[in-house]
Structures are given as structure tokens and as C-alpha cells.
Amino acid sequence: MNSPHSRPQHGAALIMALLVVALVTPLATTLIWQQHNWLRGMETRRDLNQARQLASAGVDWARAVLAEDARKSRHDHPGEPWATRVPNMPVEDGEIGGAITDEQSKYNLNNLVRNGRRDDLEIATFRRLLAGLQLPQQLAGSLADWLDADDQPGEDGAEDDDYLALQPPYRAANRELSDLDNLLRIKGYTPRIVAQLRPYVTVLPGYNPLNLNTAGARVLGAVLHDFSTTEIRQIIAERERIPFLDENDLRSRLAGQIDSAQRPSLVGERIGTRSTHFSVLVHTRHGQASVRLQALLQRNTFWPRILWQKFD
Length: 312
Known about the structure:
Layout: H1 6-72, E1 86-91, E2 94-102, E3 107-108, E4 113-114, E5 117-118, H2 120-132, H3 138-147, H4 160-164, H5 191-197, E6 201-202, E7 210-211, H6 217-223, H7 229-241, H8 247-254, E8 271-272, E9 277-286, E10 289-298, E11 305-311
Parallel strand pairs: 3-6, 7-8
Antiparallel strand pairs: 1-2, 2-9, 4-5, 9-10, 10-11
Helix pairs in contact: 2-3, 2-6
């Protein structure tokens, strides 16, 4: 039999056991919750990695499509396979979709300066595009100064003195744009203006002609400034019927429909029907992770080169 003195000891042991359980329970709960979060984090990182790999595979697929197009065709137009938007398609544990865009269907802002010097003809073209969008034409001058190699402000321009007065101060780049968002550092450009320009302009390295077969009416009208609005519509209707092979094809096919097809705007390298720069947008989902990948491709050789790509 237990002695009367052992009963208080048993009671103290029970209380101690209850205290230990009370302390251990929240600790165990915390450890389980942390382990759960760690596992969820591992799953998310795994899904994100898989989604990114899937998006990169999508860009490689676009490169293969453009390489095949280069092998079969010597001009580019919206009726070719590369121009078909790919809707979201199911893949294991996710989906993928995307589109290829001819970047030479837009006006290349880097055309404003050639070999470090302002090109007045191209600046006038950009002014016409700005006017059509009801945007200040002074934006052409400030952009040209940002791009040219000197530090002397041109008409409506802005150089170091304008930017060094800002907080924080910085200098004019005096080199090509590498991204459309670079415009936000240039005098006069705002997020609203950049958003308004985005469907009509692009940023490509060097000088690049406009593709007659893919350019929209507004950009086409800015470049072919000596063609009336009616004539621009005729050009678009004619290319939808049969895409133009080259500039000479345009001249010959429109000779009977448009008065004096020999126009100054058709002279030189300003227009073409063969594009070398394409953008790719791929959106993927794997598990709980979604990824959006943008890439700029250059097709100067058989296999297109990736100039840049970024994940969103």
C-alpha cells in the first residue's frame, strides 16, 4: 500500500506532466506548421521551375517555327504559320499558350539616329506618327537627342543640362534604346504616353525597315507619307489579297490603281517584306505557379538568336 506521504508526490508528478504537455503541444504544432509551409514552399518552387522550363521550351518552339519559315519563304506576312496565335493547351499538370509578333510591323525608334547622327527623314516620320496619336511632336526631338552621340541639343531636344537638373540627376544616354521602358527617362515621356505608343513602336538594334505586309495603317501612313489615306487602304487591301513579295512588286501591282506609284517614300531601305526581328510571348502554368515569358528574337541566320528574354 502507498503511504500517505506518496500522494502529494504523485500529484506533483501529474501536474508536472500536464505542464510538459502544455509546453510541448504548441511547440509541436509550430513545428508541424513550419514543416507544412516548407513543403508548400518546395512545391511552389518546383512548380515555378517547371513552369519556367515549359516557357523556355515555348520560346525554342517559336525559334523552330521561324527557322522553318525562313527555309520555305522569302517574305513574311500574317498568313504564315508563325503568325497563328497558340491558345492555351493542356500539358501535364498545367497549360501553355503564346504568340509570335513581327516587331517590324511597328516603327523602330532607334531609326531616328544612324551612325550616331540624327536622321531628319526618320524624325519627321516619328513626328507624323505622334501627330496621328495626338501626342506632342516635341517628343521626337527629345528622343533624337537621347539617341545621338553628341551633347548639343537639337530642335525640341534635351541633353545633359536638362537631366542633371533633376533629382536624382543623370546624363543623356547618347546611345540606342534597349527597351521601350527606357523612354520613361527621356524628357516629356510619361507612363501614359509610353502605353499609348506601345502598340505602334518598337526598339530594335540598328536600322530596320518597316514590313509592308504586317504594318498597321497608322504606322504605314507615317512612313509612306506621300500616299493618301485612301491609297494606304488600297495597299492594305491588296496585300490581304496577295502579300507583296518586295518593293518592286508593290510598284507594279499598284501602278494601275494608284497615281504615280514612284513616290519618294518608297526610295531606299525604309520598307521591305522580309523581317528579321520577332517578339515571342509565352504564358504557362504548372501546378500552382504561372509564368509569363517575353523574348526578342533576331533571325539573321537559319536559327533565330535570342537578343533578350524576361520572366514576369
